Amino acid sequence: MAIAINLRSDHFSAAEIEGLWDQVAAFEEVPSMHALGYRPHVTFAIYESPEIDVDTAWNAMREAAQGGAALEVQFSRIRWFSHPQFVLWAEPAMNETLFRWHASIAAAIDPAHCRPHYRPGAWVPHCTLGTRIMDGRRDDAIAFARSFDRRFTVVFDVIDCVVFPPVQIVAERKLA
Predict the structure, then answer these.
(1) CB atoms within 10 A of CB 92
(2) Alpha helix locations (H) across the chain?
């Protein structure tokens, strides 16, 4: 079972991301994001190492966000990862707080215990829109991403720690 630490949106503004989940689901055999039963989020780290437990991960997340308020994150682009699987995601505008919190977590827990894509120098802040894009729909998904021309803001108002699969919240704190 993996452990992830995240910044989550329980705010009504998350409907913008959830609407994109619905649009991206057209490129998936089975809609991936609603199936998680989990809100829109930005993941800072995923640990599968036996040396890292929930308490260690949660303490690192709490310390990183100590005194932090809910974050307004702006989005205006949809991008994709093509390896190891094809994933569409919303790209946050540059946000120093996200990078500061990520650096704090990496300072608290040796990044060697973290999945490679979440380590310093490799981590790309993102809000996932779809993880099961069908091979035959990749070109359509890329065209959708390239044609996206809206700007919106989502308030991320909760930090949490989850275990998965399936996603289970094991610790959370509302941000002021």
Answers:
(1) 20
(2) 15-24, 33-36, 54-64, 96-108, 138-147
Query: Would you say residue 175 lies in a domain?
Result: no
**pTM of the entire structure?**
0.96
Q: Give phi and psi for 138, each to the nearest 5.
A: -60, -45
Taking only the tens place, the pLDDT of each residue in 15-24 is: 999 999 999 9
Domain containing 161 equals 2-170
Is 8 a residue whose pLDDT tops 80?
Answer: yes
How many domains is the chain partitioned into structurally?
1
**Residue 15: what pLDDT?**
98
CATH at 39: 3.90.1140.10
Q: Are 148 and 78 in contact (CB under 8 A)?
A: yes
Judge contact between 108 and 5, C-beta under 8 A: no
Bond preceding residue 84 cis, omega within 30 of 0: yes
pLDDT digits (tens, 9 = 90+) for 94-106: 999 999 999 999 9
For residue 116, is it within any domain? yes
Look up tokens 């055999």; give the residue: 29
Q: Would you place residue 149 in the very low, low, confident or very high pLDDT band (cuts 50, 70, 90)?
A: very high
Helices H, strands E: what count in the chain?
A: 5, 8
Q: Are 170 and 163 in contact (CB under 8 A)?
A: yes
CA nearest 1: which of 50, 40, 43? 50
